[in-house]
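Subject — a protein and its fold

Tokens — whole-number codes for backbone shape
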Amino acid sequence: MRHNKKLALIGDIGGSNARFALTDPAAPQPELLQQQNLPASEFASLQQAAGFYLRSAGVNPQRASLAVACPVSGDAVRLTNRSWAFSREELRRALGFDELLVLNDFGAAARTIPALGDNDRVVLYGALPTPPRGPVSVLGPGTGLGVALLVGNQQSGWRVVETEGGHVSFAPQDSEDSLVAAWLAARHGRVSNERLLSGIGLSQIDAALAGRNPDRASTPDASLRDPAAIVAAAVAGNDVSARRTLARFCAVLGSVSGDAALIHGAQSVAIAGGIVPRFIPFLRSSAFRERFLNKGRFAVYLESVAIQVVTHPAPGLLGAALALRTERPGHPSP
């Protein structure tokens, strides 16, 4: 491999996929070069996956920025939905970096919001503030449910507050919500929003509404329908149970998005993650908006909150690239 002081490694590391690319932090606009999406299940560790990518790219950069799907504080990092754990300092040394920045994946996604162009998003409701300003609630289902807060504006600068809001307790709003919650409680015990609003959550909603036995989860669970297949069947319109499942998913997403907007005092909401961009027309026609506004006396307050869906193909990578321009890795906590 050749050393390259100009390029830096960027990564978006989730429970299912490890996405990597290269970027030039000194370029006028961040570019994502030599992107590669690696199935996380094929690698024993983040170090192994990153090393595989660097060898295939044929470079040995001196700087790196990795967005990971878990809380980030101190030197030790453990992914929430993947059995990968690492020491930031040990990973830096093992991969030969001078600098290694590690940040939360939805913190990275939040960084992209002010940088998105019109082709990188779809506005569902309302008018986005012009020029952009916070607070912005950023959330979205993928392997898990990410939540972050973006505050500030273009003049004063932007600040990201990384959170684990996806693990807030789920609050059923009607009988079908309660049915799903009871099924999930029998399977998992405590029911968080992420239990529903994630890829596996979509599959579990489907199983609950179909009346399947909520036996304790096993991995892998062959009894659950593939979430991508559920979405495809629902969008095609030829599967009543899939449409019912996706409709319930959209309704719950509306409730949780409205809750996040109230908690954050948001001017706008940005929905990111890999799932929702696949069915935006279905989302528009669902109960999402009704449930978003169903907050009693604060329905009028929420009517002014604009909602967008991020359609940029790699917001985690873009956010990791942007972080290289504004953040320094610092020193890990002892």
Observations:
- The mean pLDDT is 92.
